[in-house]
Predict the 3D structure of the following.
Amino acid sequence: MRTLTVPSTTPATTAPVSPGRQALDSALFQLDQAADRLDLDDSLRAVLATPRRSLTVSVPVRREDGRMDVVQGFRVQHNITRGPAKGGIRFHPGTDVHEVTALAMGMTWKCALAGIPYGGAQGGVSVDPASLSARELERVTRRYVNEVLPIVGPERDVPAPEVGTDRRTMAWIMDTYSVNAGYPVPGVMADGSAACGGAPERAEATSRGVRFATLRAMRGSPGGRTVAVQGFGKVGAPAARHLADAGALVVAVSDSTGAVVNRSGLDVDGLRAWSKETGGVRGYPEADPLSHDDLLELDVDVLVPAALEGAITEENAPRIRAGLIVEGASCPTTPGADRILADAGVTVVPDILANAGGVIVSYLEWLQEAQARSWSAREVDARLRGLVENAFDTVAEVSAECGITLRQAAHVIGVGRVAEAHRSRGL
Ligand code: NAD
C-alpha cells in the first residue's frame, strides 16, 4: 500500500504527536485503503489527500483585564468538487491545523456518502471557550470570522456548530458576515437561532441521525438494549434522549467532568437538567460515579462515542464489551483499534455514516429555501431518516459483498463518488 502524506506546516520535531496529527494520519490511512480498493492513480490520490484551501489566521483576543492574547484559527476546505463546502467550527484548546484538516476530509466523504451536493470543510480556533467571558468569546468569534471572511459565504463555504460552539456562535458569525456584506446573510451559517433563519430541527439533526443509524444497525427493536454514551454535549445528550425514547436503556453517560452509571436506566431528562444546573454530569444523585475509562469498557449492547477523536485505541479496544459501536463523534476510533474490534466481531457504524444527520438537514433546509417551501418538522425528520437509512443500506451491501468493515465500505463509496466527480469534471 502506498502511503499518503500531506505537507506538514510544522518543522520536524521529537515532540509527541498531537491528537490532531493522529486524527489526520487515521484519515489518510482510511483514504489510502479506499484508494487501493478503487485502484485510484497516484495523482488523484494526491489531490484527494491534500486540502484544496487551508487558511491559518492569528486571532488577537482582548481580555477583560486589558491583556491581549493571540490564538490561532483555521479554516480548511478539503474538497469542493461536488459542491460548496460545509463544515463545523470547533473552539477547543487542542485544535490544530492537522485536526481541522482531518475533520474537513471526513466531511467530504460524509457528504458524498449521504448523496448530498456539498464538499467538506472544517474550522477551528485553538481556545478554551470555558476560560473566556461571553464578551471575550464574542470578540474571538467576530475577529475569527473577519479573518476567514475571504473564503466563507453561502455559495462557498458554510460553517456549522461543532465542539465548543453553538447557536450563539452562529448568530455572531451571521451578524459579522452580514455587517461586512451590508445586508443580512442568514445562509452564511447552518443552525442559527430561529430568529436568524435557522430551522429549529437542525439543532438535533446529528443526534436524530445517530438514532436512525443505531436502529438500522440493530435490525430490530432497541427495546431493553443497554447503551453507554461518551460525551453529553450537542450530539451525545440528545442522542441519549432519542435512544431512550426508542426504548433503549441508557445506563451510562460521561462528559468532561466525569461519568455516571445506573444499571436500571438513567433518567436522561433529569440528567440533562442536572448537567445544565451544575455544569456537568458528575455528582448526579440518581446514579453511581464511574471512571471515564470504565464507561467505554462497560458491559452494554451499544456504545456511542460522542466526545472527541481518539477515544477508542489499540490500548482499550481489547476491553470493549459492546457489540455495536455507533460513532456520534468524528474519528473516535484509531485504525489499530478498528482492526481489534473487527477481529472481535464488534460492529462499528463509522462517523461519516452515523453523524451525517446535521449536514443532511442543512441540505434539506437549503432545498426548502430554493423551492420557497416549508416542510413540517415531521417531513424533515422523515427525509432525514430516508437518507440515513439509504446510506446505511448501501454501506452494508458493499461491506457484505466485498467482505470489508462498514467503515471501509463507507470510505470506498464516499471516496469513489468524489473521485468520479473529479474525473467527470475533467479535473
Ligand atoms: P460539544 O462540545 O457540544 O460536546 C462535547 C461533549 O464531549 C461535552 O459533553 C464534553 O464535556 C464531552 N467530553 C469532552 N472530553 C471528554 C472525555 N474525555 N470523556 C467524556 N466526555 C468528554 O460537541 P458536539 O457538537 O456534541 O460534538 C461532539 C462530537 O460529535 C465531535 O467529535 C464532533 O466532531 C462530532 N459531530 C458533531 C456534530 C454536530 O452537529 N454538533 C456533527 C457531526 C459530528
